[in-house]
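Notebook entry, structure prediction.
Reason for the run: the old model in the group folder had no record of what sequence produced it. Starting over properly, with the input documented here first.
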Amino acid sequence: MDEDKSDKAISSEKEVIQIRKEKIVAFFKKSSIWIFILLIIALLLGIYIRSLPMADHNKGLPSFTSFLFSPSEFYGGRHGLIDITTNTWTLGPDLDPWLFLRYAENVVEDGEIPTIDKMRNVPLGFDTSKESQLLPYMIAYTYYLFNKLGFPVNIEFAGVVFPVIMFALTIISFFFFVREIFIDNSKESILRANVIALISSFFMIVTPVFLSRTVAGIPEKESAAFFFMFLAFYFFLKSWKVEKEINAVIFGILAGISTAVMGLIWGGVIYAFIPMGFAGLIAFILNKVQRKEMLAYGAWVLASFSFLSFFSGRYDLIELSTSISSGIAAFSLSVMIIHFVIFNTKLSENTFIENSKLPKTILSLILTIVLIVVLSSIFLGPGFLIDKIKVVHQTLFKPIVGRWNITVAENKQPYFLEWSGSFGPHFKNIPIVFWFFFIGSVVLFRKALENVKKKDAFVLTLLYIVFLVGLIFSRYSSGHIFNGENFISKAFYYLTAILFAGGVIYFYSQYYKNNDKSFEKIKFEYIVLFCLFVFTLFTARGAVRLVMVLGPIAPIFVGFLIVMVSGKFFKTKEGALKIGIGLLVIIILIAGIYSFRIYYQSVQAQAYSFIPSAYNVQWQKAMQWVRENTPENSVFAHWWDYGYWVQSIGKRATVTDGGNAITYWNYLSGRHVLTGDNQKDALDFLHSHNATYLLIDSTDIGKYTAFSSIGSDINYDRYSWIGTFILDERQTRETNNATYYAYMGGVGLDEDLVIEKDGKEIFLPKQSTGVGAVIVPATDTGNGNKNFQQPYAIMVYQGQQYEVKMRYLYLDNRIIDFKSGIEAALFIFPRLDQTGQGIRQNPIGASMFISPRLFRGMLSQIYILNDPLKKFPNIKPAHSENSLIVDDLRSQGMNIDEFVYFNGVHGPIKIWEINYTGNEEYKFEYVDTDPTKYISWEL
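New structure, fully documented this time:
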């Protein structure tokens, strides 16, 4: 009796739970309030994180709750983005945004951006129609908007807040794009799509690799472009899903306009053209393109091409139609049009076409390719297609070539072990989010094939996994068998792609023969997403800077995996399988929450620290001196990195800048100025560019390898590097007569060296010979001072050590010439050590090994050694802006040199005034823009 009551109670309890569960599910299915609330929370979280550089930096990292409930306190106090010389807003630690801010300032002050920017590329100037003009106008309109609303702000504030506004809009367009991928007419799919879109949005907001281009103070192109990118994808999907042709065309045009706006802002418009182009082609091959879809696709292509070519001098219709990137969109449209013409006219009655056993779409594709080959050979020459094929092959394996490109850090081609680190956090060296999106993509691929026979779907999914493995892991690490460079890596890369493509073609042809329409039922939304995903994976292994674009795409698969596995649990009947899936759900949820938490903490700390560093403040002070002490028509020469800072903060024109519109000038600047070995060539180059000042800063020491590579001839005659050697007190030896100071380090020789030992000449080859240490003897003068003797380098070649005397020693702001030894110098400068009581100085704690090749160069002579041999008498010191640590210690009474070693080399920003002799020669080759006339290698 009691047992019956107990059973009924349990049964009743289960029914209540089931009813409550059904009510909750019904609420989420029917109501959209919860979506709105969570989307608002996502927006607020995104704004909070992205605006952290604008927060009060006197009280430590502010919390999300303080942002929500005490915004005046959050934004009050001393914000992080401040120029200490003007006590107003400034941009964050980046280069390119300063150009867009200056152009926005032109719009506010003059109403437009000048046609020719005379502050760039002196004496030629820069054609601004070749640059993104829309972004500066958007910053200017942000300025107008705030002032119209009654908030008096300056243009710098508009530049600071612009990325935050655009990121908020990006969250919205991203949410609707993801939602559109997974939504259909059923209530269950609406719920699922909303949850996936929300999870994806929250993960996208906290993805660390996506932060640097979307945070306050960094009004980069990407900060605005991503909004239009996701908007374009959203409209593109809508254009295929609506029923009426007129609506399809309207959405296609909107997608085209969004794509064009993206292209007017950012060259990354290829992330719209290539995925959409391939998606359209694949959909066509699968026979998913009818009249409505062709009209929608055509509207997108024509609208985007038309707007781009009309509003920018960077694009023209021919280039858009024939380039590797946007050309795929035009090609796919051509295939559709030719197919429509053939099979909707009497051409379809042609004997060849009627008797063909190929699928009609494949036949149209082949005919289009043949037609393009013939027409391109006639009008563009037979080498046109061969060149395109070569470009594709190079893009697959070595997308970045040329001396200039490979020296830019963000252009470096990463290995898997490098870029996968952006998709942690790591658990036992396993990047969690990476494997989340990898597995999620596999699960979604299998779901896309839900109408295909299970066995065939399994084989295709297996081939997809193999393809992903080849794409991702064929460039695993430099020391791995798959290093991306050797034959095995390339063969694996190609073969996995061919195997996957071959498998798809085989199964599709088999289904076509059997008149099975299963492949046609693959959702177009999935095709678009996979085209975008594969392309972002491909570019992520191509350049460090492009890993960022994978950042917001990967969370889509993370969100899908979480929702898919959770949904599977609720649909599975009670039993062992449900328990197993339940455990899997728990593991995924724990890993997901853990990853989100780690991501959140990471981006929170990074965003808060995205403010001017001590180095940036040093530049602010240097540029204040420039503004106040140099004529307004001054022209500055320097390495290209600093051009936008000098133009925008210093308000002075420059020879080169970060746009690198004329990379040949970088070669000339590197060769004749920074590594130049004589004053005449330097003055001729500077005179040809009307330069009046020269600037060098401490980071040029680390960049010496880059600009000496770029400035070298075909045999790399200037290629070198500056090695830092640290005094090792443990290795220092004392004898009755002297103390031997040992400076330890390690660099390779930059040029062959011949020394004499025991009456024999010994050849020490470059790079194979290492400099492991430099020894400096010193004798005691009797009054506590030391008399430093001739230094000698310990060089090692094939296990044999050689003591090689160096002719020069630079110490206490003077050079000592020992009249013998190799033409090299040891530059000794202070090292700072952190102690319990503060900072302790060792005046001789660090040194730089100035090799004979370096010693001949202008940077070593005038920047490090202060022109000790008077080889550059007409380059007159005008100003030296010390690093903040030197200024701070000097203000505390410490007597310290301008160079110090403290976790790296800290040095001054030095500016020289150029006093021309009057005998300088204007050389057209120094201002020419075509390097092929003068050099035979690729810059």
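Summary: DSSP finds 35 helices and 25 strands in the chain.
The old model has been moved to the deprecated folder.
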